Amino acid sequence: MFGYDWPRLHAALNDLPAALLLVAALFELLALATRKETFRQVSFWTLIVGAIGGAAAVLSGLQAEESIAHGDAVHRVMETHELLGFITLAIFGVLAVWRIWRERRMGTTERALATALSLGGAGVLIATAVYGGRLVFEHAAGIPTEVLTSEIRERTEGHEHAPGEGHGDGDSAAPAAASPAGDHVDPPGTPPHSHEPEQPAGHSDPPGTPAHDH
Q1: For the chain, what is the radius of gyration of the CA atoms?
Q2: Burial of 103 by CB count in 10 Å (0-12 exposed, 13-18 middle, 19+ buried)?
Q3: Maximum Cα–Cα distance for the chain, whole Å?
Q4: Which residue among 7, 15, 50, 197 is the one 20 to 30 A from 142 at the CA level?
Q5: What is the pTM of this model?
């Protein structure tokens, strides 16, 4: 679909609902603390849209699971990620239906319970994201085996930087070490010369002679 396979589509669908559900939990907490109706409305609508997006993310994840090559280690992490995803979707799905039904009739106790459920769902959501990150960054899940093999070969061979090329703060090579304060440094190409003070031809005073006019 538009050049996306299921793993890439799953990755694309993850970010927005996760952000919306976290924002929903935050604004519900702010609404409970400040009693401002505006915060509660933001929480309500971000929860509804986030729950719908979360369902799309879970469905695409189930399809991605069937289409990527993986071994036992990836499978174990994937199963945990999947379970946490289901729990996250269940919490926020129930919360969304509950608030659609009871939003305008909730009392203080019921509202506090809904907020606690929202915060608990946010915690499970973060754990889900952690395991999803492990799949990608620790096990390279979703990367085709031939691509991964080619990348390993290139990393083994290494990469030589051209003169002046680098990954530091700038593109130029590292500057030469600074000389101690007060030392004179000649520019490159300056012929060697002595730094001893020149004495005029003829008479010279012995060491210790007081200064005098010539």
Answers
A1: 34
A2: middle
A3: 110
A4: 50
A5: 0.68
